[in-house]
Structures are given as C-alpha cells and as structure tokens.
Amino acid sequence: MSWQAYTDNLIATGKIDKAALYSRAGDSLWAQSSGFQLDQKEIFELARGFDDPSQLQATGLHVLGVKYFLLRADERSIYGRQDTQGVICVRTKQTILLAHYPPTTVAGDATAVVEKLADYLISVGY
C-alpha cells in the first residue's frame, strides 16, 4: 500500500477531513490530503514536541497557522483543540500521523481512528 492510501483511508472514515504523513523526524512529507502540508517550522515544533512538550505547552500547537489548545502531549500522541475542531498527531517508529477533524466529529471517534492506524503501522515495523 502506498503512503497516500493511509491518508486517504483516514479521510474515508468520515471522522477525519484532512490528513498527512511525515517522517518521524518531520523532515519529509510522505503523503497528504489536498492542501494539508505544514510549513517547516510547524512540523519541526511538532516533531520535537513528542520528546519535549514544554514549548507546545507554553505556546500551543500550530497547524497551518491556526493555534490549537494543547490537550495532550507525550512520547506517542499530541492532541490539540480549537473551538469545535481539532488535530491528532501520533508518532510511530518511522512516521508522524497528523489528522484534522471537523466540528461535526466527536473528538474521541477521530482519535480512535488515528490511534488504530498508528497501532497498525507500529505492528508492521513502521
């Protein structure tokens, strides 16, 4: 399966409206839905946030210029919310999954979809 198929599958669930897949270091974009590409500063801050969330805690999580309130940040998952929409970021052995959910989606439903894909990627070595 191509990397693009993973982002397409996330969107096909109806719980996610935008998705991207980056290398674990955040230095390369592997797949994305239309127009969902972070600028270099945003993806590097996100990638560093898995190991040291203090900067994200201090300034918030920024995705495409939008500031999200940081809900969770640990070595595996980073969640952010802005009003009724949010972002879910999950790091696997080789990737960072980034997904955005719209106001019509329950956060827990979107989170379950992304975390499940991350579990699968980890199980196959990615």
TrEMBL record:
It is found in: Cytoplasm, Cytoskeleton. SUPFAM superfamilies: Profilin (actin-binding protein). Keywords: Actin-binding, Cytoplasm, Cytoskeleton. GO terms for cellular component: cell cortex; cytoskeleton. Its main location: cytoplasm. InterPro entries: PFN, PFN_euk, PFN_sf, Profilin_CS. GO terms for molecular function: actin monomer binding. One of its GO terms (biological process) is mitotic actomyosin contractile ring assembly. The keyword Cytoplasm applies. Occurs in many kinds of cells as a complex with monomeric actin in a 1:1 ratio. Binds to actin and affects the structure of the cytoskeleton. At high concentrations, profilin prevents the polymerization of actin, whereas it enhances it at low concentrations. Belongs to the profilin family. This is Profilin. It comes from Candida tenuis (strain ATCC 10573 / BCRC 21748 / CBS 615 / JCM 9827 / NBRC 10315 / NRRL Y-1498 / VKM Y-70).
